[in-house]
Amino acid sequence: MIRDITLGQFYPGNSWIHRLDPRVKIMVTLLYIVSIFVVKDFIGFALAALGLAVVIAISRVPLKFILRGLKPIFILIAFTFIINMFMIKGEVLVSFWIFSISREGLRMAVFMAIRLILLIIGSSLLTLTTKPISLTDGMEALLSPFKRFGLPAHDLAMMMTIALRFIPTLLEETDKIMKAQMARGADFESGNILRRAKALIPILVPLFISAFRIAQDLAMAMEARCYGSNSKKTRMNGMKICSRDIAACLIFAAFLAMIILERILL
Amino acid sequence: MSIEVKGLTHIYSEGLPDESLALEDISFRAEDGQLVGLIGHTGSGKSTLVQHLNGLLKPKKGHIIVGDVDITAENVVMRDIRRKIGLVFQYPEYQLFEETVAKDVAFGPSNLGLTAEEVDERVREAIELVGLDYDKVKNLSPFDLSGGQKRRAAIAGVIAMKPEVLILDEPTAGLNPKAHADILSMVEKIHESEKNIIFLVSHNMDDIARMSDKVLVMDHGKMMMDGTPEEVFSRGDELKKMGLALPASMEIAAQLRENGFAVGGTCLTMEETADGIAEVLKR
């Protein structure tokens, strides 16, 4: 019942995009996000959308799956659209009561909506095609230059890995506790908001207790295997930049150049 | 009161790539006052079956009839099922949440809509029945109890609902030998005083052989055997193929027989085996 949550979901596959080095994918995604902010007209967006479409096609992630990720932020997109549409002053197209829609407002609203959608699809492609573990490995590698300024890159990556790893465990635990309380006659579905919130206590208290228990067990197990982030560690599956990563970088550089030229020239 | 299961079938994630047949055409019957042992390898479908008996899962096909009520029917009221059938999950102490033991035990009965006096009465009864001292523990936090006591308190929370069928899913898992024996003698005491049907899910063949009136054996979602402990445990080779074992007492007898000592009797308990061996030695 609570397994429909799709937070940073990974879509298993073995496409060219899936096999790219996570560091390359993270950097490319970041730069893509920047490039979306470089764009200032609709031709630029068409280029950016085309680039995204090509990547989606290569990754073989079903479009339906990607669009499903847009659902939760639909309200955000609608909200920005409406605010932009009414708030920006200019040549009036339609007006009623105290509201008026201007040409500039409408243009800005559509513009921002497209920007948001591209942003979200672009960044969700990263998580859809990269295993959470390689994602954190990539982040760690990219953050490690900042270690000399005291940034605990490895610890941050480890925390993220553990958090991701325990999402399914905690969901399973919640499911078990819910069933156990339902067997004792608990009712989560009826009553007003206050009653329903109160009905959650029998789930939340045991859930917190077991989360702490799991954390303690994990800490103990890590310590028993001499985990300490200040020692130098080697990796079992080290990351290596190979020809396809270089190719991806070159293709992306061409894309970036196109976006910048479009902005300067048009 | 009896419980009858007919042609129960359940499929997990139907229509998805990871679809799996969890229960296949399960049928059995348990009569009033029986203690039914349910055994099977991990993943054999025991827990799925048990959750159906409590109405937590709905079957794809088949019926479960408790007394004269079909609890798989569309229009059945969940509260009535929960009143009839109590389910104690594995590690039930993880479901404790209230400030005091008494309040936690009262959670079930008050959900049944009983009056405050009735609830108090049942809480006291249930706590005494699981072998805890009501006056001592009622105002304690359940988290201050020892492991074995926590489990008793959690079981009391289900018993307080006075179910006609009580299901215990591995009630002794993870307990030390003393607490293990205590919990089992508590189960026998509950069985005696409440006269209900008890389902005992366990991996411990010794306990099942000693306590059950009837044994059900599951494997890969199917009901493989259904009979008295004597009948079921006489098919040792089949049990071993399913990754199960014989009770230690029968294993000893079987090995002695293989080596030429004709130990008689069914040897379901250590006492019976000891008697059998004594007889051989006397001859």
UniProtKB/TrEMBL annotation, chain A:
Its main location: membrane. It is a multi-pass membrane protein. InterPro entries: ABC/ECF_trnsptr_transmembrane, ECF_transporter_component, EcfT. Forms a stable energy-coupling factor (ECF) transporter complex composed of 2 membrane-embedded substrate-binding proteins (S component), 2 ATP-binding proteins (A component) and 2 transmembrane proteins (T component). Belongs to the energy-coupling factor EcfT family. Transmembrane (T) component of an energy-coupling factor (ECF) ABC-transporter complex. Unlike classic ABC transporters this ECF transporter provides the energy necessary to transport a number of different substrates. This is Energy-coupling factor transporter transmembrane protein EcfT. The gene is ecfT.
Automatic annotation (TrEMBL), chain B:
It comes from the Bacteria. It is found in: Cell membrane. Gene3D superfamilies: P-loop containing nucleotide triphosphate hydrolases (3.40.50.300). It is a peripheral membrane protein. One of its GO terms (cellular component) is ATP-binding cassette (ABC) transporter complex. Pfam families: ABC_tran. InterPro entries: AAA+_ATPase, ABC_transporter-like_ATP-bd, ABC_transporter-like_CS, ABC_transpr_CbiO/EcfA_su, ECF_ABC_transporter_ATP-bd, EcfA2, P-loop_NTPase. Signal peptide: none annotated. Residues 3-245 form the ABC transporter domain. GO terms for molecular function: ATP binding; ATP hydrolysis activity; ATPase-coupled transmembrane transporter activity. Belongs to the ABC transporter superfamily. Energy-coupling factor EcfA family. Forms a stable energy-coupling factor (ECF) transporter complex composed of 2 membrane-embedded substrate-binding proteins (S component), 2 ATP-binding proteins (A component) and 2 transmembrane proteins (T component). ATP-binding (A) component of a common energy-coupling factor (ECF) ABC-transporter complex. This is Energy-coupling factor transporter ATP-binding protein EcfA2.
